[in-house]
Amino acid sequence: MQLDIGNALDSVATPGVSTDALDRLDDAVADAHETIAAGMSNARFGYASLNLPETTSAAGIERAVDSIDADAVLTVGIGGSALGAKTITAALGEANHFLLDNVDPEATNRLLDALDFESTAINVVSKSGTTAETLANFLVVRDAYEAAGVDWTERTVVTTGESGPLAELAAEEELPKLAVPDGVPGRFSALSAVGLVAPAILGYDIEAVLDGGREARDSLTESIDDCPAYAYGALAVALERRGVHTNAFMPYAEALEPFAEWFAQLWAESLGKDGQGQTPARALGATDQHSQLQLYRAGRHDTMVTLVRPTARDDREIPAVDVEGLAYLGDATLGDLLDAEFEATEASLAAADKPSIRVELDRVDEHGIGDLLVSFEAACIMAGELMGVETFTQPAVEWGKNAARGLLGGEETAEAAAVRDKREYRIE
Amino acid sequence: MQLDIGNALDSVATPGVSTDALDRLDDAVADAHETIAAGMSNARFGYASLNLPETTSAAGIERAVDSIDADAVLTVGIGGSALGAKTITAALGEANHFLLDNVDPEATNRLLDALDFESTAINVVSKSGTTAETLANFLVVRDAYEAAGVDWTERTVVTTGESGPLAELAAEEELPKLAVPDGVPGRFSALSAVGLVAPAILGYDIEAVLDGGREARDSLTESIDDCPAYAYGALAVALERRGVHTNAFMPYAEALEPFAEWFAQLWAESLGKDGQGQTPARALGATDQHSQLQLYRAGRHDTMVTLVRPTARDDREIPAVDVEGLAYLGDATLGDLLDAEFEATEASLAAADKPSIRVELDRVDEHGIGDLLVSFEAACIMAGELMGVETFTQPAVEWGKNAARGLLGGEETAEAAAVRDKREYRIE
Predict the structure, then answer these.
(1) Which 8-state DSSP code applies to residue A17?
(2) Phi then psi dihedrals of residue B305, to 5 deg
(3) How many distinct helices (H) and strands (E) make up chain B?
(4) Domains in chain A, start-ordered, CATH in brackets?
(5) What is the pLDDT of residue A411?
(6) Is the pTM of this model over 0.95?
(7) By the CB < 8 Å criterion, does B363 face chain A?
(8) Cα–Cα distance for residue pair B311/A30, rounded to 1 Å
(9) Which of B14, B75, B256, B290 has the most A C-beta neighbours within 10 Å, making it the best mutation to test the interface with A?
């Protein structure tokens, strides 16, 4: 991964970061890197995530799923238990990876009506083995396979913690079982079995994904000047301190759309704490130039745009056309057009004094997505260090879980009572 | 559409709106309604959008596409020329509506490799007939059909303005041609041929979509107290004035995910002006409870969450399970679980003093999506009136278009020169 932060400098953007401020930031980055490096060495909670490219065994995952013969995968998980797998297979252009990462009955009915059970493996992922949405979906899916006369026990892989209902079930039914690694929060677990079982079943080279992650990990140094990952995290924090409260994440590659979703979870859940944290806004280039760009240019000076693109991709010629005003298209490829729009959008933000950061990867492939995942995890950890937040927890989501359990389970929690006390003001 | 604004009041949230402030706001809404109603009567630019449920002829669209025999539709358009059609067919659960609304060659290659040309109609939409992305894609698509030996002229519908290359092409090839209505900006055109050709070809009841829109249009009154659409727009503006710069739009229905994308365009492009405008953040319930909710609860007090759900939906039982701690799931349906999570999330935001608005529609169907589209258009127009911005233009996107044309066409525009002068600061 390479970065160009030129358009985030104060000579271009308002707010922007001065080169003096970058120098001062560099000292803080060096200190934080020490903490991070020590955390990695000691495999401390959270920091251990950055060790996954070393500690995950591609061969072990491949062996575990070897008995599964499938053309498609249905991943049953939610949040960090689904997004990593979705991000990786989407980056590789896979069309046969389906997800149940929600509990919308209409969407579930549609998906299960269309699924060819015989050729579809089930990849169920829950660290605790008790996640309500995931367990509910898994019960529904098992039932659907049974109703169709297809043996789900022959095509199910379980990824979970040491104990819990899913671990017990795996033992009972002798299902392949993989571990959610210790010390790794869900949103940092893409480069473990959590994210790699689905691509492994579908035949992708998951070792190459880990290779990409390894490259990102090995490029972590103590200075912004030669560490793109840390530079991204540090710049985002510096801009946030100057009022940039939104981070619009805009890849120019459709295959990276789920990566933007993964980034949104990483950033929001890790850094959205103590009244701090940038709001991630997912966008997609070039499409969202026709949607969000008006706001990014003419709205408040509170948004940075992260523009992401591969420097190489498969291309396609635009056929020549003999129409006035359109002939210029015929000399180009779709890739030329997309690159021109990328650079035009970047410059148009600068012309409006709005900060942006350019992120480039070599190619959207196994290696590239592994690199991106680990680079942005490191960026996020660096940001958390500089912000002084607890990067690896998500305490604010417990309230809602207690409320939902109370509402549904009949257990009268304080949270469920609060739901019933809602202040109504209806307009009909 | 119904609203509950109870959790946006200052007795619940910080910032929130007091009931006194609501009363004052109601006067401004009454004035703005006069402007809007007059604009509708005179079919003034932009305001004419709200007349579409009356002025669009479902029968006319159906007649025009009658000769097209297809099981699938490929829409070629971008921004407002694609999002409306996508929003409507997604709401109806359609899986065979494909889009080329970007110029990513890898995604285009994948889509065209998988498409069954024989059974797929082409729905090409561009008001000017010169939109670079749309014309490039259309040239590519025509070429792909020809290469496969399939006659594209037998299965193409053109929606465009009076003149321009697409209009000429339609005349030359005797293609069915529909008009982009006068006085209607792209992002407000869903209830015209722009949004309705695709569902019409796929056999949906587009008259029912217009019916839903008509109901929304007829419910526009001069007071917040009985007009959900205006109340939404007015509350969003009141909250924005109090520092709520982000609007997280979170439907609890997967079929409304593109609706959130449509809303994001509507809101950003209409209101993101003069240093104003809320940043729309797209989210999806319940999935994003495991992603964005930590930030929404524990981050800055600068975000409102718009929670959207249908009050009725097809459901699915969760099979009973004999596992400790999970048995409660077996007494419920997926819909029960989703509703419990909706209410739990809403209450959890209130417990963190964060404002939210509840939006409910009867059902996600033809009528429901028509209602939502027109209701939110009216909400947006009301917001624009209260903010004093030019709701119906998007001047800030021209810069980038000029730059891209300069870069690609060899025409040396000032914008293209600015792109070449980029300030670089590379980190590798």
Answers:
(1) B
(2) -110, 125
(3) 16, 11
(4) 2-37+211-387 (3.40.50.10490), 50-204 (3.40.50.10490)
(5) 78
(6) yes
(7) no
(8) 54
(9) B290
Residue whose structure tokens are 């509350």 = B235
**Cα A56 to Cα A48: distance, rounded to the nearest angstrom:** 11
User: Does ipTM top 0.85?
Assistant: yes
Name the residue in chain B with its Cα closest to that of A292: B268
Please tell me the predicted confidence (pLDDT) of residue A412.
83
Q: For B214-266, give the secondary structure using H, E and C.
A: HHHHHCCCCCHHHCHHHHHHHHHHHHHHCCCCEEEEEECCHHHHHHHHHHHHH
Spatial distance between the Cα atoms of A416 and A406, rounded to a whole number of angstroms: 5
Q: Span B288-312, mean pLDDT? A: 97
Using the predicted structure, report yes or no on whether residue A410 has a pLDDT greater than 80.
no
Q: Which range is least confidently modeled, A138-147, A179-188, B69-78, B402-411?
A: B402-411
**Per-residue pLDDT tens for A102-133?**
999 999 999 999 999 999 999 999 999 999 99
Neighbours of A398 (CB within 10 A): 12
Which of A383, A389, A377, A364 is CA-nearest to residue A189? A377
Interface test with B, best of A334, A357, A398, A402 (most B CBs within 10 A): A334
Other beta carbons within 10 Å of A21: 15
B residues 192-231 closer than 8 Å to A (CB): 224-228, 231
Q: Which two tokens stand for residue A252?
A: 């120019």
> Chain A partners of B328 at a C-beta cutoff of 8 Å?
405, 408-411
**Residue B401 is among the residues annotated as catalytic for this protein:** yes
Full strand arrangement of the beta sheet holding A177-179:
A97-100, A72-76, A120-126, A156-160, A177-179
What is the mean predicted confidence (pLDDT) over A121-150? Answer: 96
Average pLDDT over residues A215-224: 97
| DSSP 3-state of A178 | strand
B425 phi, psi to nearest 5 deg: -150, 90
Any idea which residue has 């043996």 for tokens?
A151
What span, in angstroms and rounded, lies between the C-alpha atoms of B319 and B341? 19
pLDDT, tens digit, 9 for 90 and up, residues A354-369: 999 999 999 999 999 9
Query: CB within 8 A of A426, min separation 6: which ones?
Result: B2, B3, B4, B6
**Residue of B254, B317, B390, B401 marked active site:** B401
Q: What is the mean pLDDT of residues B1-17?
A: 98
- Report the 3 state secondary structure along A333-400: EHHHHHHHHHHHHHHHHHHCCCCEEEEEECCCCHHHHHHHHHHHHHHHHHHHHHHCCCCCCCHHHHHH
- What confidence score (pLDDT) does residue A228 get? 98
Token reading at B288: 């994003």
Q: Which residues of B touch A93 (CB under 8 A)?
A: 106, 110
Q: What is the dihedral of CA B50, B52, B54, B57, to 10 degrees?
A: 180
B135 pLDDT higher than 80: yes
Report pLDDT for A322.
Answer: 83
